[in-house]
Each structure stands twice: as C-alpha cells, then as structure tokens.
Amino acid sequence: MKAKRNRNRYGHLKDYWDLYLIMVPGIVYFLVFKYAPMWGIVIAFQDYSPFQGVRGSEWVGWMHFREMFTDREFYQVFRNTLLISLYKLIWGFPGPIILALMLNEVRHLMFKRTVQTLAYLPHFLSWVIIGGILVNLLSPVTGVVNAMLGWFSIEPIFFLADADWFRTVIVASDIWKEVGWGAIIYLAAIVSIDPQLYEAAVIDGAGKWQQIRHITLPSLLGTIIILFILRLGHVLDVGFEQIFVLYNSMVYEVGDVIETYVYRVGISQSEFSFSTAVGLFKSVIGLALVIFFNRMAKRAGHEGVY
C-alpha cells in the first residue's frame, strides 16, 4: 500500500513537473527572506550586542517584554496603531469590493479599462512620491485643497500638522493608493461566476441590485473571507513608509505607530533586543487573530486560509 502511494506521488510529480518548477522561486523567496530571518527572534530574549553576536550575548528571558508593557509610550503607540489599522480596515477593506462591483457593471470596454488602469496606477507609486503630492495638495498656503476651501470662506487647515486631521489623511491616502489594486482580485473572482446564473435571474425578473445581492456577493463571499482573514494577520501593520514620510513632531501623539516606534528605538537608540521584542509581540497578535478567525470561518461553513 505504501509503495503504491509512493508511485502515485512520484507519478504526480513527473506529470506536473513544470508546475512544481514554477513554485521553486516562490518557495526559495519565503525560505530566504521569511523563514531564515526568524532565527533572529532569539535576540528578543537576550541583551544583544552586535560585537558579541547571538551566541555570545547574555540571555535575559522576558525582561524586554516586561519593559515594553511598563512603558507608557508603548501604550500610546499601540493605541495609535490599533486605531489607524481599524480605520483602514473599516473604510478601506470594502473599497475594492465596491469598485469591483461598479466596474463589473460598466459595459463600455474602453471606459472600463481606462478607469481600472487609473485606479490601480497609484499602487506602483512609492510613498515618497505620494507624500510629495500630498504635501503640495494639502499645503495651507499653496495647496489646491485649501484654495478650494477658501471659496467657501473656510480658514486654511494644515492637514499634515493637525492632530484632528492627520489620521484622516493617512487612511484616505492609503485607500486611494490601494483600492484599484485590491479590486483586481475581486474582478477576477466575478469573472469566474457562471453567466447562466445571471441569465436565470433575468428570466425571473431580477434587477441589477438583486443580481448583485443574490448572485455576485454570495459568490464573492469565499474570496472576501480569505482576504479578510489575511488582512487581520497584518492588523498591527499600518505601513512604516507612509507614516514615516507624512508624520512630524506636531502629530506624534496621534501618528506614532509601532513600526516608527521600533525604528526610533531599535535603530536610533540601538535597542535591538527591545525592538525585536516589540516586533515579536506584534507578530504573535497577528498570528492569533488569523488562527481565531480562520476557525470561526470554518465553523460557519466557509473555507478558511488553511
């Protein structure tokens, strides 16, 4: 029986060798850049010194984690991270779904392709470029946005230096940058829906809204759940580059997040062990959320991530 299974396994490998070969670069990438660096996690439990290395540094156990939870600044940073991430999740996650549904209803092919291209083009721009655009657009002196507000006799607003507006700018700019790219996945899922379902719905007298509600959205539910679970795994990742480019000392109170905190403490102050402990804490939270919601999805009868 075992020999038969081995023959079937090697036969399957022989028949689909080209597909396995395509997988090799992806597997190598994750092994080299994702799994191998995990060895560095051990310095979270050490008083790490670059001169002594991992093997020569003193083991201190949970000391850095105790420092983290007794640091007042960490709680402020954790709160900022959680709020910005939740805002992005609440307002940003439905965005690609809505855009994909709207594009799917466009019948003019050239217009559809133009809108789709313009929507996902910002994804390929770095946050350095987008940061420069935002600085110019939102400038209280020369910015177009404040010039338009002036038409309605509204005083200029320094969006990037105002604590009341900074998070709004962060969330809105992230949605604008990524909504088109995210919509591609949902458009691909919509294309795979059986057209006969829509034809039967039309015969039964269903309108566009009813087709979306009873056919399109239920067909997308599996994709939505999987992407939602994967997004929860990065719930404490709000984007270092975006925050670092846009924030300043005037908005540290609302804009300083775990990633900038780790950079400031780990790189600027050379607290490598402490910053690794903070990063490990963030990863454990993401892993726990993925496991929990994946189980919830399976209990509800849906396919999870694994």
Notable traits:
single chain, ABC transporter permease subunit, transmembrane helix, 1% strand, globular, MetI-like_sf, 306 residues, membrane, transmembrane, 72% helix
Kindly name the structural category: mainly alpha
Helix content: over 70%
Shape: globular
Terminus-to-terminus distance: 28 Å
Mean of the pLDDT scores?
A: 87
Q: Figure out the total of helices.
A: 16
In the residues, how many domains can be counted? 1
Name the strands of the widest sheet in spatial order.
1-2
Please name the fourth-level CATH homologous superfamily: MetI-like
Low-confidence stretches: none
Radius of gyration: 24 Å
CATH class: Mainly Alpha
Spell the H/E element sequence: HHEHEHHHHHHHHHHHHH
Q: How would you sum up the major sheet? A: 2 strands, antiparallel
CATH architectural type: Orthogonal Bundle
Strand percent estimate: under 5%
Q: Number of DSSP strands?
A: 2
CATH third-level topology: MetI-like fold
Pfam family, one: BPD_transp_1
Family: Belongs to the binding-protein-dependent transport system permease family.
Membrane topology: Multi-pass membrane protein
Protein name: ABC transporter permease subunit
